[in-house]
Amino acid sequence: MARGLMVLIGSSIGFSGKVPVPLPGPSLTKSIPWYLFRGESELNKAKDSMRRDWDERARRDAFLYIASWRKDWDEASFFESGEQDYLRLVHPVLKKLQLDSSCKTMAELGCGAGRMTRSFAQHFQSVSAVDISAEMQSRAKGYLRSFSNIRWVLSNGETLSGIESASVDFVFSYLVLQHMPTKEVVLSSIREMMRILRPGGAFLFQFNGSHQPTMNWKGRAISGILDGVASIGLHSASRLIASVFGIDPEMVGKTWRGVALSAAEIAGAVRSGQGSPDDFLDADTPLAWCYGRKLPEARA
């Protein structure tokens, strides 16, 4: 089967798109508003929590937390589901956008344990698989060690600095943005995807577009308590409380629930990266999709 280049970008990755502020002396430090430091602190906390939580999920059961609709995965069924999702979700859009994968570069936000990485490696020439979780990526490397066209990149959770601007032909993300803990992280991730796309390149990604509660009042109350406990650094206590209530401690918190965004917010991030959102599918649902192309005249 023909192959092409793809980039898989972190199961729980987030990108700030910010340039570090030089602090050569106290006078400059005093001139920088306090809320900028607070923003950086919150971003660092978000990145640390994503890395910690997804490493723990990988140690407990990587297959389950990547594809939580089933609890009895084995290696064969897990990777077969990735191929089915490629045929169901990716192939029709590639056909609609008239993009031939056989000699194209491609990027996915969220390689995890490699559920869809294998399919991309079979359909594209080469793959760069990027993840914030070393534990998830370690498992993917083991499962896919026979593939010579996969390049593994561990992200710092803030940027795609290991991938050059305007260097890939297709970017894909599924079941990743929906877990990111803040809007800033989601929107910055989308801008980074646009940055690495070549002019005329295509994108397809899924996000949570529903602002409707997914839990009853009791669930929301318990979730709020757990978030509050974790936010003051008592992560272990939060996990213990979840267990007491019979809740899987890996399926609580902001790195699991993530945030919802409107189609307008998503479109704004795409356009700010010189992309053109051709269409949205199921825009007001938890499984909303956006696809389109980067403008042919876009500058790197």
What does the model show?
The structure is a single chain. The chain is α/β, with parallel strands linked by helices and 300 residues long. It has one domain: 3-Layer(aba) Sandwich (Rossmann fold), CATH 3.40.50. 44% of the residues lie in helices and 17% in strands. It has helices spanning 26-31, 34-66, 75-96, 117-123, 134-143, 183-196, 217-231, 235-244, 254-257, 263-272, and strands spanning 5-9, 105-109, 126-131, 150-154, 168-173, 197-207, 275-281, 288-294. It has an 8-stranded mixed beta sheet with strand order 4-3-1-2-5-6-8-7, sandwiched between helices. Helix 6 (183-196) packs across helix 10. The longest helix is centred in the first third of the chain and has 33 residues, at 34-66. 44% of the residues are buried.
